[in-house]
Amino acid sequence: MAINATFRFYEELNDFLKKQYRRHSFTYAFNGVTTVKDAIESMGVPHTEVDLITVNGNPVDFNYRIMEDDTISVYPVYESFDISSVQLLRERVLREPKFILDVHLGKLARYLRMAGFDCLYDKHYDDTEIIQVALSQKRIILTRDKGILKNGKVSRGMFVRSVSPKQQFNEVISRLQLENFIHPFTRCTECNEKIVPVEKEKIIDQLQPLTRKFYSVFYQCSGCKRIYWEGSHFARMKRFMDDSQRRL
Question: Which of 65, 68, 112, 130 has its CA 20 to 30 A from that of 141?
Answer without folding.
Answer: 65
